[in-house]
Amino acid sequence: MAKFAIITYSTYGHVTTLAKEVAKGIQAAGAEAEVYRVPETLPKDVLELIHAPEKPDDIPEINAEDLTKFDGFVFGFPTRFGAVPSQITSLFDAAGSLWATGALYHKPAAFFTSTGSGGGKETTIRSALSFLSHQGMIYVPLGYAKTFPEITNVEEIQGSSPWGAGTVAGSDGSRQPTPLELKTAYIQGQEFAEVATKLTAPAETDATKESAAAGETSTSAPAKEQKATATESEDTKKPETSASAAKSSEKSGCCVIV
Q1: Would 87 disulfide with which of 9, 100, 184, 231, CB 3.0-4.6 Å?
Q2: Is residue 80 within 8 Å of 50, Cβ to Cβ?
Q3: Environment class of residue 21 by beta-carbon count within 10 Å: exposed (0-12), middle (13-18) or buried (19+)?
Q4: Sign of the C-alpha dihedral, residues 87, 90, 92, 98?
Q5: Per the structure, how many domains does the chain have?
Q6: Is there a contact between 78 and 14 (Cβ–Cβ < 8 Å)?
Q7: With contact defined as beta carbons under 8 Å apart, do 1 and 30 qualify?
């Protein structure tokens, strides 16, 4: 079973709420999903000034070395002036040794975001693509195919885009993810798992192909032997038939036309 990590940074919990829906979607697709958070880099006094709640105890922290344990990743974070927040880039920067060994090469990844007013939700993800490119990872966007009604909905505010699911938290962070936004996050998790599982499935090696071919050969051999035996049996009977016909012709004085 493929195993994916949902790696988050959340100041007020909006991203965490979306992450749990992404995890449900991944699990619904038959894969394993675990939600993690990156270490906080802001001092405690600053967090108190901005009235940030305590980090959830049920979501463990993750570091760069842990990334090798997973088949793929879904990163979730808020936008900071249209770019990735420093807490996430700290994780990216710490993955230099993984770049050197190619540990993340061809591993799939996706993104989802949270913004205050909707601005920056796409540029934030675009700025994160640099990390994937240098690591040789594969970006799996959300797209429109399975989320067109949700993303194009103009009847209510929603923070998703073809780049990834998202929510609009409001200038004071009081707005929570809506059922529409949560549905999009769920779909993203499900779609990501289906695509990423195909990308991470073991490829059929030449040895496997040769083994399968050998199995087909051994299976068909008895049939060939039986056919050969039957042919030999028919050939053995032919002289007897000809001899009988010759005797018959001697008695009747008639020639035999073969």
Answers
A1: 9
A2: no
A3: buried
A4: negative
A5: 1
A6: yes
A7: yes
Spacing of C-alpha 136 from chain mean position: 15
Closest CA to 187 of 165, 159, 169: 165
Q: For residue 182, is it within any domain?
A: yes
In a domain, 205, yes or no: no
| 243 in any annotated domain | no
Residue ranges of the alpha helices (H) in 29-120? Answer: 44-49, 86-93, 96-101
- pLDDT tens by residue, 6-60: 999 999 999 999 999 999 999 999 999 999 999 999 999 999 999 999 999 999 9
H/E segment holding residue 206: helix 206-252
Instruction: Give CA separation, 247 vs 199, 221, 237, in Å.
Output: 75, 40, 16
Does this model's pTM top 0.85? My answer is no
CA 61 → CA 34, 39, 83, 119, 216, distances in Å?
A: 11, 6, 22, 28, 51
Q: Indicate whether 254 belongs to any domain.
A: no
Quote the pLDDT of residue 254: 46
Domain carrying residue 159: 3-200
* C-beta neighbour count of 227 within 10 angstroms: 10
User: 211: burial class by Cβ within 10 Å (0-12, 13-18, 19+)?
Assistant: exposed
